[in-house]
Design goal:
Bound molecules: adenosine-5'-diphosphate
Structural class: alpha+beta
Radius of gyration: 22 Å
Number of helices: 15
Distance between the termini: 53 Å
Shape: globular
Length: 446
């Protein structure tokens, strides 16, 4: 096991990782920019190193400075959290070259899954169902038209290097195709410096359902069920739940086993999430994230498994501590992402938190890196906390969520809490009847 882990992240996830390290008896190193000198993850770590000025490119994304922090503190492993360098294959490779363990998959697996076309081809080869579309990149409009007509409209043009929903354009009819192709290319070129695009069938009413997997790099892999993340705004998840209201036990076991078997073939190591769109009873692979997800706590709530602890164990060379037959799912969990944003316009609302009173009680978990008097810096993501509730049934979970939201007081800044109060009062949400477009439509009409 490791002696000292450096956490290359900030905010709630840095604290989350520290908690797992402490319970394993591992010393922790926090890194921070000058804007985060007062952050909770810095205060609670055993040691901390300032790695640069506020812009992420000069601090949290700066590999030489992170390496120097490892060297100064003698850290023998790095946990990247999510975002920042968590899916940077080069970072994983450089750490290994310096005999520092990257708590995550191999750099090769990160690289494969980071390229959407390669990821899709790999998924297909491993027996995972994918969205119908072009075989690889499309180079001309003639080729695009031929594929789109064969598949039927609407189609979606997607950037190979895509992320965050950029470089994605829908063509509803043949007339739209030329423009969709050129705008997707231009957007991809500007955002990723790579204008390669491919075509997929555009699913009109899908849910976003993702499967949590775990491998030990030694050919063992299990799945921990699914999360439903269909409530999205601009392709960003807002609320997540497990299990999905749309799946039964047989469908869950089938897709879970398909994904776990694929991970066994790949000899995948660590935590991973295979994301699907789910429509009319069929799953369609969209991408794989080779890291811990923001919404991992809903899986922890229903399985009782500490995902971060398991990541650390597996990275240290241990085999998985659980077998598939030992995994059981208990009750229902929902996570709300509490962002420092206006709940209607979603404009970021940094500033000082003058009052902070998180909810408590049975089945309520708050993961956050803030505290009363803390000043939220304007430089980073606006996620300031996550409220996770667990109940025996979905209905109990919703009632508990309503109760917990009513206790939550955050003053001094705007947050997304009022939006969640509204959402849980909607019959479609109460009944679990929503697809990936539901929230955008709701926001447009209310
Ligand atoms: P990114 O990496 O840019 O986030 P993803 O491939 O993960 O891109 O897709 C993000 C979101 O875009 C999905 O959650 C879904 O809402 C939508 N999307 C992606 N592919 C399709 C498709 N073929 N049909 C309909 N919607 C899609």
């Amino acid at each position: 096991m490791f002696d000292k882990v450096l956490i290359a992240n900030r905010g709630e996830i840095a604290l989350r990782i520290q908690r797992a390290c402490k319970e394993l008896g591992i010393a922790t190193v926090a890194v921070h920019s000058t804007a985060d000198a007062d952050a909770m993850h810095v205060r609670l770590a055993d040691e901390s190193v300032c790695i640069g000025p506020p812009p992420a490119a000069e601090s949290y994304l700066n590999i030489p400075r992170l390496l120097a922090a490892c060297e100064i503190t003698g850290a023998d492993a790095v946990h990247p959290g999510y975002g920042f360098l968590s899916e940077n294959a080069r970072f994983a490779e450089i750490l290994e070259e310096h005999q520092i363990t990257f708590i995550g998959p191999t750099s090769e697996h990160i690289r494969i899954m980071g390229d959407k076309i390669e990821a899709k081809e790999t998924a297909k080869r491993l027996g995972i169902p994918v969205v119908p579309g072009s075989d690889g990149a499309v180079t001309s409009e003639t080729e695009a038209m031929r594929i789109a007509k064969a598949m039927g409209f609407p189609v979606l043009i997607k950037a190979t290097a895509g992320g965050g929903g950029r470089g994605m354009k829908v063509a509803h009819t043949p007339v739209d195709l030329g423009l969709a192709l050129s705008t997707a290319r231009a957007e991809a070129k500007a955002a990723f410096g790579n204008d390669a695009v491919y075509i997929e069938k555009y699913l009109t009413k899908p849910r976003h359902i993702e499967v949590q997997v775990f491998g030990d790099g030694q050919g063992n892999a299990i799945h921990l069920g699914e999360r439903d993340c269909s409530l999205q705004r601009r392709h960003q998840k807002v609320l997540e739940e497990a299990p999905s209201p749309a799946l039964n036990a047989a469908a869950r076991a089938k897709i879970g086993e398909t994904v776990a078997e694929a991970m066994r073939k790949l000899k995948y190591r660590g935590a991973g999430t295979v994301e699907f769109l789910y429509e009319a009873g069929e799953f369609y692979f969209i991408e794989m994230n080779t890291r811990l997800q923001v919404e991992h706590p809903v899986t922890e709530a229903i399985t009782g498994i500490d995902l971060v602890l398991e990541q650390i164990r597996v990275a240290s060379g241990a085999q998985l501590s659980h077998k598939q037959k030992d995994i059981t799912f208990a009750g229902h969990a929902i996570e709300c992402r509490i962002n420092a944003e206006n709940p209607r316009t979603f404009r970021p609302s940094p500033g000082q938190i003058s009052y902070w009173h998180p909810p408590g009680g049975l089945g309520v978990r708050v993961d956050s890196g803030v505290y009363q008097g803390y000043r939220i810096p304007p430089y980073y993501d606006s996620l300031i906390g996550k409220l996770i509730v667990h109940g025996k049934t979905r209905n109990e979970c919703l009632m508990r969520l309503k109760r917990a939201l009513s206790e939550f007081v955050i003053d001094g800044i705007e947050t997304t809490i009022p939006l969640f109060n509204e959402l849980i009062a909607q019959p479609d949400i109460a009944n679990g009847l929503y697809d990936i477009h539901w929230l955008e439509k709701y926001l447009a009409k209310s």
